[in-house]
Design a protein that fits this description.
Oligomer: heterodimer
Largest sheet of chain A: 8 strands, mixed
Shape of chain A: elongated
Mean pLDDT of chain B: 93
Helix content of chain A: 10-25%
Strand content of chain A: 25-35%
Number of strands of chain B: 16
Order of helices and strands of chain B: HEEEEEEHEEHEHHHHEHEHEHEHHHEEEH
Largest interface: A-B, 75 and 57 residues
Radius of gyration of chain A: 36 Å
Shape of chain B: globular
């Protein structure tokens, strides 16, 4: 890194002064030695020199200080007490890719363009430069604008012919996907993350392969050159930062998780939501580039329209401007950007806003200068005003952090760029006007609004009066341009001849000029300012006083959920779902998150346990849903027929309100599955419904890994347009066999390589393949297969394929014709997780019957009932009841369909699924028999923690209602501001029946630029 | 109890065969000592019910049978009026994903002229499955575009759609325009544009009503010119009963803005309107009561509209409507993939009961209230003298999941309670008997 900086620096000096390009006309050698005097110089955050001088020589700062002798060859520029800051760094500026770089030249995926250098395409036009300059930016961190691996960012000086200070700062990565309609892989967030991981593995492998090839060309077949991977491997080796663009705190965590896996230096483009998962984000201390862009005011004027906004959005409007301060408090380094602002001038207003709310000026300055300079490896050339630094300065007519002051000049690379006049001509106020020996009073002011309908007083449109003792005359016309003023007035009351025409020019507080009367006679006049209007006092913005909730939105915990050391339930009817069956008026004791004891009568020392009176109540194990799509931000990666590499654990969303609603129905564990768009789908995640936890906190740690398969209409794209292989059930089988054959050969190839040291020395190693790794785990029996299936033929096909390859299917999911081949399923040893009564929605489910579960049970198959729906998952107990209705299972057997049976299918029955001593304290208290439609869930506990109770929900509901009302009041009482980040209301993202068939992306529609 | 019943009734469940429509009632039947959910009045325990010629004759404590009357002791069995699904596509679609089997969505936006019953397939396999749980009538409605067409109330038994039609038309179905302001698809799709679009859509409805009224006027006067008489507009002609207010508009709307606008629109044109959907109805009970607008609530077993709403709000909505005096009935979910599960309608009512609605009000919400809103309360919906003998017997509370429907009658005709599911069940039980895997 250091080496490169030095190289870069020499390079810079090279192009700034001695020109490489041929001279077009004559040599241009303007003087390059300047002395800026009488400046209020902020040399670096926390350091301030009053009345100081800066000497600039040949593009660099030669010296700075209070008592500096001005060199003989320097030209002095008097700053007249203007404030001087080191040139600011715009830390995120996206550059549109020129068409010649549209496609990656090297990688199979058009979205992997890591070799692309954005600096090649940066040709700023004047408007862009003016915008950036007016905010004080002399330098920018420029980034590419498209792709998953977008390419390398750079730091440049912001001049017409930009000078590159560091052509390769960071690889920019974005979770970019086109959605369900797109044919190109990946079309989902799931796929993007898998592709990112695979590409990192590929880069490592590529580097090794190239090395082997160079060393042993006679032993290896040449591989195709791939600049994308080569560049990536270099960056990975050099500990270069990798920057993830993020849309909300979930994306921050996802990005950080990937970087952690490959031990890479984490940078993030911030999103403003980081405060919601501050602890998790700050644990790795990423560098965050934070756009100073806050949400616009939600449109709540119409109460019915207000309903479209989730409380979380209203709250975010209040809290978002505190995010940066919260990050800084955690010790995270933050740099600022004007990225995404609709109006550039909002940058400084927003900066003032966050400083009002607590951010210290020194940190604000550091975030514009030293922090990004250091992070981008340029701390020796930019970011401070000191000897040897580049001549990058911002000159402001006042304090930069007061948005009313103006940046009037920038120095970039030792050359001045004038932005605005040093003094803004301001004629407003009272003047003593001397004409001859008389002194008149001239008052110039904006006319009061509301005179003419629809006419707004605009800048420059001043009116005024001229008066002498009791005499007063209105100016009839007035014209102001820059510092020139002319006006006319009836001169007769003052003893002149007819109308007078004044002309004058302003310099600071003096106007000098001449006037002509009707006869053409002219006089000199001059004006001296006697009174200036004081600026209005400003009320400072205040930080939000709201407490964080986990999660935000509704029903979040503001403090830790209740987790007593012990819980004792007395005299309850206990449905154990275990060997003890139903125990009436028994006691059950939970301790340290486990079932401690079940007995007719248990006594504990007073106060040592939370007591629950169980009389008349029923206690069951927490219910388990073996097929759910709740709590996931992405469900299907269907662009390829095999996507074993994608993982639901990468896209978990602990904020999904479904979790809380499902807890309220007694659910405690769910198997979150990939959709059914392709024969071999992604890896599932078994979660516990630990409401309020960050995504990783939901994972059921001990649960074995698994994967989703699918058969039939969905995978052959029968119900929507598609032309991907396969289009028949015949093809589905071939995809399965093909996948496992290639997995077998991969396994052998890897094993051979791993045990042969000669091969390891001279041969290119087998490429590490996430997809095949997962398939090999299936072959090895280490990964459970959960297969979406309907018809008997396809069920038997998969059994045959699995047996040919020597593994067992863990569960057939849905398995609606399982009742036709129950004995085959039993013989194979698979479980069956079925819907209760769905049928007739597509052709392959025309023979589905609600007796399916009972018939399979009677054939000895382990059967569970699943929801595949956020709605059904709230009442799995009533789904179980249908097994009593259709097929006469006993109530005990029926309850097992949603407790111990799914636990066995997911191989987590060692911990959950029944109330037995030593198992997890996951249980539900019901106000009546759990299978009755007239009973309801009173309390739901997970790991001995109370995540839901009717009383708790009621309290949260009232609290949230008050919060909502207060927030709407606050929004209504806040004066209108026209700009801000657009918010798209998200309260009504209604998910009801969500099955495997749904496409991707529902949660993140709400926030966009 | 079931065994007892099969002893006294003629066994008519022909498992393994297709279901055969019931024969016309030839002799009076007296059911003795049942638990009668009259719905219009109290639950009568140990009462007798006499029906003849397809009509209920009497409900009394003790009825003495005439000699030709068949008498059955139904002690401990519940008798309830047949449940009514007030909206559905039953018979209009067999398999949602198979285009060939879909007949509920005509092309175009304005289809007031199409009528549902002519494409009702009386041999749909879904019908017997549905009536197996006590749903003996279903209002079937077209569902597409802005004005979808006219619905028909069908009895779930009959050889042809003509046999099965209890009333046609029941209502004209209108999908109210979406009134939400959303994120524009393109930057040009601004808030202003969206508001203008909504306004235009409502304006189009106003214009259509005006056109229909003008047409009505023109065709109601005696025309001199015989040629002019021949000029017919089939769409406008079909609007007559609806613009005259003799038949209702069923306006499908869930969100509060839609419902408010629909009610104002109905008032403006003096139309008889009913809200279908009504998920937000609990937010505007005052307005619904003030204008006496009934709601067909669809549905109870659903998730809240918005994240911040009480998690059980859909379950509680019927109670809130009842408490505040809104007329309502409960409808099953419709559309893909719900058509096969209209049979779960009683459990919708049960959930409402669990969350505060009175038990008998729960029953009313899927019987008499539905009949009232559909305008057939004179014929069906309760166990009252003179009404159709359309009811069923169950071995437990009719709303309970574990209860089984053991007998059902539609206008006195005994309904075959076999269905595709029971047939397949029997078929595969036989397979496992042959394999020796199960006993009986």
């Amino acid at each position: 890194m250091i080496q490169r900086i030095i190289v870069t620096f020499i390079f810079i000096c090279g192009i700034i002064y001695p020109q490489i390009e041929p001279i077009k006309d004559l040599h241009s050698n303007p003087p390059r030695v300047w002395a800026l005097t009488h400046g209020m110089v902020h040399t670096e955050p926390g350091k301030f020199l009053k009345n100081a001088t800066i000497i600039i020589r040949d593009g660099k700062i030669a010296s700075v200080g209070r008592y500096i002798k001005i060199p003989m060859d320097a030209y002095e520029i008097d700053l007249e007490e203007a404030h001087v800051y080191p040139g600011f760094i715009e830390s995120w500026f996206e550059v549109k890719k020129s068409s010649s770089h549209e496609k990656s030249r090297n990688h199979w995926s058009s979205k992997i363009r890591s070799e692309y250098q954005v600096v090649d395409d940066f040709k700023p036009d004047e408007k862009i430069l003016n915008n950036l300059h007016s905010l004080g930016f002399t330098t920018a961190h420029i980034v590419p604008d498209a792709g998953i691996f977008r390419g390398q960012s750079a730091v440049v000086n912001l001049t017409q012919n930009p000078v590159s200070l560091n052509p390769s700062v960071s690889q920019i990565m974005n979770f970019e996907y086109a959605g369900w309609e797109s044919k190109e892989y990946p079309h989902s967030l799931l796929g993007v993350i898998a592709l990112m991981r695979q590409t990192f593995y590929d880069a490592r492998w590529y580097q090794e392969a190239i090395g082997k090839l160079a060393k042993y060309p006679e032993e290896n077949e040449p591989i195709k050159l791939n600049a994308a991977l080569e560049v990536l491997a270099q960056s990975m080796g050099q500990t270069d930062p990798f920057t993830f663009m993020t849309r909300d705190e979930h994306y921050s965590l996802r990005g950080l998780k990937i970087l952690k896996e490959f031990n890479l230096k984490p940078w993030l483009l911030g999103n403003g939501f980081e405060y919601r998962r501050l602890k998790e984000i700050s644990s790795v201390k990423p560098f965050i580039i934070h756009p100073l862009n806050f949400p616009e005011k939600p449109k709540v004027l119409d109460p019915n329209r207000a309903l479209q906004y989730s409380t979380e959005q209203l709250k975010h409007w209040d809290m978002a401007p505190d995010n940066i301060f919260a990050l800084v408090e955690e010790g995270i380094h933050v740099a600022f950007s004007s990225h995404g602002l609709k109006k550039k001038q909002d940058f400084r207003k927003n900066l003032q806003n966050i400083m009002d709310r607590g951010l210290h000026e020194d940190i604000a300055l550091a975030s514009l200068t030293t922090i990004p300079a250091e992070k981008m490896g340029l701390e020796k050339s930019i970011g401070r005003i000191a000897q040897g630094m580049m001549g990058n300065l911002v000159i402001v007519d006042g304090d930069y952090f007061d948005p009313k002051s103006r940046v009037f000049s920038l120095w970039i690379g030792g050359d001045e760029h004038k932005i605005a006049p040093r003094f803004l001509p301001n004629f407003k106020g009272k003047w003593n006007v001397s004409i001859g020996n008389k002194v008149y009073t001239l008052e110039l002011k904006k006319p009061k609004p509301g005179g003419k309908k629809g006419s707004k007083p605009s800048a420059g449109k001043l009116g005024g009066t001229l008066s002498l003792e009791n005499l007063s005359e209105k100016l009839t016309q007035i014209d102001i341009f820059e510092s020139e003023i002319s006006f006319s007035i009836n001169g007769s009351p003052f003893g002149f001849d007819g109308f007078l025409t004044f002309k004058g020019s302003l310099e600071k507080d003096h106007i000098t000029g001449s006037l002509i009367d009707a006869s053409g006679k002219d006089f000199d006049w001059n004006g001296i300012r006697i009174e200036m209007k004081p600026p209005k006092p400003r009320t400072k913005k205040k930080a939000s006083v709201l407490a964080l909730a986990y999660p935000e939105g509704a029903y979040g915990f503001t403090s830790k959920p209740h987790q007593p050391n012990a819980i004792l339930i007395n005299d309850a009817t206990i449905w154990t779902s275990g060997p003890k069956g139903i125990l009436e008026e028994w006691d059950i004791l939970f301790e340290d998150g486990k079932v401690k004891k079940i007995a007719p009568d248990i006594r504990v020392p007073k106060g040592s346990a939370t007591l629950i009176d169980g009389l008349g109540r029923h206690v069951t194990p927490g219910l388990i849903d073996a097929h759910s799509h709740s709590a996931a931000s992405s469900i299907n990666e269907g662009a390829q027929n095999v996507t074993a590499e994608v993982r639901i654990q990468d896209v978990l969303d602990g904020d999904d309100i479904s979790i809380f609603r499902e807890l309220a129905g007694g659910l405690t564990t769910a198997n979150i599955l990939h959709g059914s768009a392709n024969p071999i789908g992604g890896q599932n995640a078994v979660i516990k419904l630990r409401w309020g936890k960050a995504p990783d906190g939901l994972l059921f740690k001990q649960a074995p890994q698994g994967i989703k398969f699918a058969l039939g209409e969905n995978v052959k794209q029968a119900n929507w347009p598609g032309s991907r292989y396969p289009q028949t059930r015949m093809g589905v089988e071939q995809v399965m066999r093909d996948a496992f054959l290639s997995a077998k050969s991969y396994k052998v190839r890897k094993a051979n390589y791993d045990k042969n040291s000669r091969l390891q020395r001279i041969k290119i190693p087998p490429r590490y393949d996430l997809e095949l790794e997962a398939l090999v785990e299936i072959l090895d029996g280490d990964r459970l297969v959960h297969c979406h299936s309907y018809r008997q033929d396809e069920i038997m096909m998969l059994i045959e394929v699995a047996e040919d390859f020597g593994f067992t299917i863990a569960t057939f999911q849905h398995v609606l014709e399982g009742y036709k081949v129950a004995e085959k399923i039993k013989a194979h040893g698979a479980g069956a997780s079925t819907f209760t009564d769905w049928w007739a929605y597509k052709f392959e489910v025309y023979d589905a019957i609600p007796y399916n579960g009972a018939l399979m049970t009677k054939n000895g198959v382990n059967v569970s009932f699943n929801s595949d729906s956020d709605e059904l998952a709230r009442r799995m107990n009533l789904e179980a009841t249908k097994a009593v209705k259709y097929g006469n299972l006993s109530e005990v057997e029926a309850l097992k369909l949603v407790t111990i049976n799914p636990a066995q299918q997911l191989q987590i029955d060692e911990w959950v699924g029944s109330l037995e001593e030593g198992k997890d304290a996951d249980f539900v208290v019901w106000d009546g028999p759990p299978l009755s439609v007239f009973s309801t869930c009173l309390e739901t506990w997970v790991d001995g923690t109370l995540y839901y109770s009717q009383a708790l929900a009621k309290k949260m509901e009232e609290r949230d209602q008050t919060l909502r009302t207060d927030l709407i009041q606050k929004i209504l009482s806040t004066p209108s501001t026209s700009s801000g980040k657009s918010i798209f209301p998200n309260a009504e993202h209604h998910r009801d029946h969500v099955g495997c068939d749904i496409s991707d992306e529902y949660r993140f529609l709400e926030i966009a630029q | 109890m079931k065994r007892f019943l099969t002893l006294i009734f003629i066994v008519s469940n022909l498992f393994g065969n297709d279901q055969i429509p019931g024969t016309i009632q030839r002799r009076p039947i007296l059911l003795k000592g049942g638990i009668l959910h009259t719905v219009s009045g109290d639950v009568l325990k140990g009462y007798d019910l006499l029906f003849a010629n397809g009509k209920i004759v009497r409900v009394e404590k003790e009825i003495l049978p005439s000699p030709e009357t068949e008498v059955f002791d139904i002690y401990d069995l519940h008798v309830s009026p047949g449940f009514i699904a007030p909206v559905s596509q039953l018979g209009l679609v067999e398999i949602g994903q198979v285009k060939q089997s879909r007949d509920f969505a005509e092309i175009g936006d304005i289809n007031p002229n199409v009528r549902a019953n002519v494409s009702y397939n009386p041999d749909s396999e879904i019908i017997p499955v549905t009536r197996s749980n006590g749903i003996l009538m279903a209002n079937v409605n077209p569902a597409s575009g802005r004005i979808s067409g006219q619905s028909s109330l069908m009895m779930l038994d009959g050889w042809t759609w003509e046999d099965a039609t209890l009333m046609h038309p029941t209502a004209l179905h209108l999908n109210w325009p979406n009134m939400r302001i959303r994120k524009g698809k393109t930057p040009k799709d601004t808030e202003k544009k969206q508001r203008e679009k909504i306004q235009k859509e409502v304006q189009a409805l106003d214009d259509f009503i005006r056109e229909a009224k003008a047409y009505d006027k023109r065709t109601s006067v005696k025309l001199i010119n015989a040629e002019e008489k021949q000029i017919v507009d089939i769409r406008l002609a079909s609007m007559k009963p609806y613009i005259r207010g003799t038949k209702p508009f069923f306006i499908h709307a869930n969100e509060v803005r839609q419902m408010e606008a629909a009610i104002r629109w109905g008032n403006k044109h003096q139309l008889d309107i009913v809200i279908v959907g009504g998920r937000d109805s609990w937010r505007m009970t005052d307005m619904l009561v003030h204008y006496n607008i009934p709601v067909i609530l669809q549905s109870v077993l659903t998730t809240p509209m918005r994240r911040f709403e009480p998690i059980h709000r859909p379950y509680e909505t019927p109670k809130l409507l009842a408490e505040n005096g809104v007329r309502f009935c409960i409808a099953p979910k419709t559309g893909y993939p719900h058509n096969g599960n209209i049979r779960n309608l009683p459990y919708e009512a049960a959930m409402a009961v669990r969350h505060g609605l009175d038990m008998e009000d729960g029953l009313r919400a899927i019987t008499l209230s539905a009949a009232e809103i559909l305008g057939v309360e004179e014929k069906v919906g309760s166990l009252d003298n003179g009404k159709d003998a359309t009811f069923f017997l169950s071995d437990g509370n009719p709303l309970d999941i574990t209860s089984t429907v053991v007998k059902a009658f539609i206008q006195g005709r005994e309904v075959d309670l076999g269905d595709r599911h029971k047939s397949l069940y029997e078929k595969y039980k036989e397979k496992y008997r042959q394999l020796g895997k199960i006993e009986q």
